[in-house]
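TICKET: design request
STATUS: open
ATTACHED STRUCTURE:
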């Protein structure tokens, strides 16, 4: 959905990359490693293509906020985030084997949650079902009501793909954007 905004033709392919933790890897490093691994995996199969890979790692203090997977875990994450700040590290990699190209970018967004009651958390999780979202909220939807503020250089980074950087990178490769 985000990439469609740029008006370039593209197709989507699963990279088949395991998104595992690597020891005590810092969240920003994990995001860059996974975005690069995803782009490289697809670029190996399509050597002539310009491939975009992305990954986002959310963290609150020293805790990584993985996708909750179920409503109980989503409620627990939001209770942890209530009245605190989380950092969302969104990495984007552009790789092309034929062009000998590999470049990455990291966008970090600071999200400040307002104090949340258990009733607000319960209603939000039931209504939005943010089970596949790191941090258990969707800023592009009702999740914005849980926040005090978002501090970002690129608002699309929080949604999953930093389009300001990506548009500039694609332009440098000869794509017409816009």
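STATUS: resolved
RESOLUTION: sequence designed for all positions
ATTACHED SEQUENCE:
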């Amino acid at each position: 959905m985000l990439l469609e905004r740029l008006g370039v033709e593209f197709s989507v392919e699963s990279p088949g990359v395991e998104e595992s933790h690597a020891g005590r890897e810092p969240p920003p490093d994990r995001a860059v490693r996974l975005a690069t691994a995803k782009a490289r995996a697809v670029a190996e199969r399509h050597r002539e293509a310009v491939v975009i890979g992305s990954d986002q790692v959310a963290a609150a203090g020293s805790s990584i906020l993985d996708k909750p997977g179920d409503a109980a875990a989503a409620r627990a994450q939001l209770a942890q985030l209530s009245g605190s700040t989380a950092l969302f590290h969104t990495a984007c990699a552009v790789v092309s084997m034929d062009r000998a190209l590999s470049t990455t970018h990291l966008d970090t967004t600071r999200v400040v949650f307002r104090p949340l009651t258990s009733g607000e958390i319960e209603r939000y999780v039931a209504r939005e079902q943010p089970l596949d979202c790191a941090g258990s909220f969707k800023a592009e939807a009702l999740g914005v009501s849980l926040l005090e503020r978002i501090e970002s250089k690129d608002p699309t980074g929080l949604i999953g793909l930093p389009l300001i950087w990506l548009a500039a990178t694609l332009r440098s490769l000869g794509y017409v954007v816009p």
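CLOSING REMARK: The chain has one domain: 24-169. The helical segments are 27-45, 71-81, 118-128, 155-159, 163-172.
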